[in-house]
Amino acid sequence: MDTTFTEDRTPSLPRDRFLWVAMLVVAAVLVGLSLARYWGYNAGMLDLGNMTQAILSVLRGQPLVTTGPGGNVSRLAGHVEVIYLAFVPLLALWPNPQPLLIGQALLMVAGALPAYRMALRHLEDVAAARSVALIYLLYPVALTAVLFDFHGDTLAMPLLLFALDAADRQAWRWYAFWIALSLLSKVYVAAPVFGIGAFLWFWAERRRAGTWTMLAAALYGSVVFFGVRGLFEPSATGLAVTSGYVNHYYGNLSQVWGTLLPRLVSALLVFGPVLFLGWRGWRWLLPAAPLTLAVLLSTGPGAVYHYAYHHYALVVPFVVMAVIDGAVRLRQQAAEAAPGERVRQWKPDLIFTTVIVAVVSLLMVDQPLNPRFWLALPGQGLDHARYGRAARDEVKDRFLAAEVPEAVPLAASMFLAPRLVDREKLYLVRYPDDPGGERLPSLLPDVEYVLADALFDWRTLTDAGILPTVAYEEAEIRALLSDPAFGLVAARDGLLLFQRDAPAAQVLSNTVTLTSTVEVSAKSLDLGPATLRGFAVNEREGRRFEATFVWELNGSPPATPWVAISQLGVASDARLVHLPTYVMQPITTWPADQLIYERFVFEVPDDIPAGRYEWQVAWYDATHPEAAFSDGEALPPGIEPVVVGTILVP
What we know:
Organism: Candidatus Chloroploca asiatica
InterPro entries: STSV1_Orf64
Strand order of the largest sheet: 4-3-5-9-8
Number of domains: 3
Keywords: Membrane, Transmembrane, Transmembrane helix
Transmembrane segments: 18-36, 100-120, 132-152, 172-202, 214-232, 260-277, 284-303, 309-328, 349-365
Number of strands: 18
Number of helices: 22
Shape: elongated
Helix content: 40-55%
Pfam families: DUF2079
């Protein structure tokens, strides 16, 4: 790019209809997909829920406080996303994650304006400016960052472009404003900002601006990383806070070699789409290099090096600048070429680069133009665990609204928690690093309620298969049922609400005993290795009933966990999970010489019409991803739902 920056201190909005239509379309897609993911209970507490809880905490006078596995902690002790304070007024009016998702998507799309302006300023061609804007709007890691919950580095992506546009116009006050906002987005944004200063100093002949930028980035980054973070983590010294942060992301570098190939593939997807032209503007890629390398080497929780993670959002402004710079250099070469000399044409190269970006985005980003989007593969596209919505999600809506108290300290299932963030304490029933049932007992003294999901229905496709299973919270539910301090007070379709010191009259009891006699109406129904020897359902009060099942093991127990699910008639939202034989005495542990006597109390929801219903029951393979929906595919071989009796609902 021409190192002599232009004098244009008053930016104007482009009047190009093509640009605004492109921005509108991309904004609609990003907002729609972000909200669809939230509506379908596929955005988890980590990270969307945490960010929302932190911002809402400011309304209670707290400094961006969220609940982690170790208790409440300020975001200012970690990534230091001061910019989240700007969203407080928005959440004061609309206290849930949706405005954050909308705001992030709209801010990202706004970054097309400075990209367009800079391209038009230097290339003096509307088609070129449109191409650069499209490269930004369609860049794969820009889109995946926006669709990956809500993060400060994603917010910084367009802010850095506005800063670069201001520097390009020599509007230094505006430049300082945008740089300040970028730095406030996340502590490590200081790294690319320092790189911008270095570029201004070495190649843009703006040494004063470059010097001040580098000083500001270095000073802010150092003070925040080594000082401010420690102020909001009073239980640890500054050194401990720093070492803890580093260990969190780089504590197991030996893993890098085992995942070297996918890391290299991610690096290719981060930079590769623009290298056909962008390599000519390689200087602009240098500010993004340190952060990119740091992410590629990270061994933090999950595959954080993967191209779909949000960290790579900070690379996008620099690949845009590299493309503009590369086109400018080709244009200059053509202008300086002797008559008749063959030179590369910058316009075809820019258009081809735009096509490459669009094709890679089409193939690698989970969005409607990707053919796989419509196949609804597990955890992708229109699948219920990505952007789709299952009928069970409507049950979740009603259950959370009717049963979960506001504000009380709570532990909730991962994908239910983001709907319940407006409270001071919000733990997870199971954290990703917990093998199952280990951490929750230590958290229970801090909560009054626990919301678990016995039919955990989120899943994704991994190298090890489709994970997790519906029994993801089995160990936690077992611990809660055996904890005398908590009682199950509400249950529907696998959603379970436990209350501390619940009144005995409200508790939905679940028991299982081993016996040798059948004390209820005798049956003889074979459901694979589980033979039903007896069944009864007795009305308690109103719509509250007690069901009794007597089972006998017939042959060898199954090799994998099974779950028995009862259903009243054809109402898909009137299902009952047999907790006694699911988590208390699983079928894999049944003795061959005794009967398994299970009893559970349940309450038929008010929105189920009165009348007589057939009671049907079936066993499902709990390792099958469709078991959460009583899908026929999850039935073990030779097993079908059977009607065992009727129930009269008043």
